[in-house]
Design brief:
One of its GO terms (molecular function) is metalloendopeptidase activity. With 153 residues, this protein is of the alpha/beta class. It has five helices and four strands, in the order βαβαββααα. α1 runs parallel beside α4. The chain is globular and about 45 Å long. The two termini are 19 Å apart.
Amino acid sequence: MSIEVNNESGVEVDEAAVQRLATFALDQMHVHPEAELAIVFVDEAAMEQLHVQWMDEPGATDVLSFPMDELRPGTEEDPTPAGLLGDIVVCPQVAVAQAATAGHSPLDEMLLLTCHGILHLLGFDHAEPDDEREMFGLQREILAAFAGADERR
């Protein structure tokens, strides 16, 4: 897996944990080991600019996903082909605020947002109730499995 993590936000981010989660999530979704993913952490001003430009929504948001080759989840027998998965942009300042509201750590929120972004890159969405149940259920499963696997490291 080629996973590039860049922190341009000015906020400390555990990039190694984000990289481990991204690798784990892509493995769980049977994405080809040569697929490429970029994860960028940006400040609120940069995120607001992207949010307005791409979603026509005001203010900074927590995560945006920009798919490239429209790859979809594979199976163990038939993994996703190699290609450019896309880019995920996360705003740590928004994540920190959301973590406080949710009652968990900022790192847990950034990992959740990274997983959420990966699922969007793989074609999942939450616009409709059934899609939301599927995506959020899968997100919970991946994060729980990752937490168990990461603790064993």
